[in-house]
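Try it yourself: sequence plus uridine-diphosphate-N-acetylglucosamine, in.
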Amino acid sequence: MRGLGVIILAAGQGKRMRSAAPKVMHLLGGKPLLSHVLGACAGLEPDRVLVVVGHGAAGIREGFPEMDEAGWVLQREQLGTGHAARCGAEALGDFTGDVLILNGDVPLLSRLSLSGMLAAHRSRADDLTLGVATLEDPTGYGRILRRPDGDIAGIVEERDATAAERAVREINVGLYLASSDFLRAALAALDNHNHQGEYYLPDIARFAAEREARVGSVTLDDPREFRGVNNREELAWMEKALQREINRKWMERGVTLKDPDSTYIDADATIGEDTVIGPNSHLLGRTVVGARCRVDGSAYLTNVRLADDVHLRFSVVMDDCDIEDGVSVGPFAHLRPGTVLRRNVHIGNFVEVKNSSVGESTKASHLSYIGDTELGRDSNIGAGTITCNYDGFTKSRTTIGDRVQVGSDTQLVAPVVVGDDAYIGAGSTITKDVPAGALALSRAPQRHVEDWVAGYRARKTKA
Ligand code: UD1
Ligand code: CA
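Structure, out:
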């Protein structure tokens, strides 16, 4: 089996993005552009994968902690794509076989297209195979120049092109497959005599043509696959294209999307069969939604796990939560990181939960804050209950047992423990542990001043 090396070019700043972050770290479907490219390449099971970085290299490396150290190649100065490829090729050492070079800013190339290209390259035993496409409007891309017999003669960048060359609609998609020997020779011969004073990787095509090397091309048909991201508008276009594809995939797998145009599902999120998702819903990061769930709408879920038969009523924000079967949440609820809701819990309107676990079938139906709390099963948290978990210096925990009734408008000043089967009277401020089975009351006793109102009104009227 012939070896396969991959070089991904990702050292450029991406000036046209006008961003402090390097271009390949911009998110598409919730993942950096570079992560999409790495994913597509991984499908080819290459022997080596090298990413050439320069601008913002440290930030990029941090974003991919699972990458092998040896996979990063530093291009100190960005002297052009040809120079970047040369850095990559040097790092490949005496590797022999085929080398695939791709731009890090072309995120939606499919594994299928890449493997098709590799198969074509190998079956024709070409020295160089180029990915090409034909566009209605080729603006911005390098143009493929062909001889009258159809053979590729070279690639010209738009800025260096004559008017006639600009009229060519066949473009270089930034995908190159070359035998390692040819590549080394071609990269060594590059110069920077062009409009931008850069070493252009596409110039390896002219080098090949001049030496009568074997140059082939594969044509990509789907613009989603070959479009590059150079500015925010192109990023938005890509996001839309990816979103459509992801939504279609989940609908095919038995998910109802009431309004696909306003449903945003990240590339790594998953959804079970017969789940129904309403408009303006965001399933972000590694969110996992089970079967037969209902998400009514306006949900913003990041890294959330919903088991089966969960009902999220309108307008919920959830982050890093684990939600078991049969739970219902909302409308208007905020579940923050570290929230675990056991089976059949109900969290109602205007309730916030953070870093807390809530036991099976427990309810907090209205207007509460539950933070840093261990809450048992079959308990009821009355409206307006607050766990006071922060004294300005440290966060403390509240523990509430099973079958507890917490009266409305209770404050639980942590650290505090409420035993099983306890009752807390409405309006209490609980500062001491409550024994199991006890009634706790801390509110001031009610008293009456008889006939007070008549006297008060008389005094006021006189004044
Ligand atoms: C490039 C091609 C163009 C092609 C287009 C397809 C060149 C000269 N032109 O143009 O023919 O149609 O892609 O999308 O290659 N990079 C480095 N080091 C550098 C310069 C760039 O690593 O010194 C990286 C960038 O980070 C980027 C990739 O190379 O990921 C392409 O660079 P970019 O400036 O976007 O090239 P284009 O102008 O799009
Ligand atoms: Ca580009």
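One thing you can check immediately is this: The mean pLDDT is 97.
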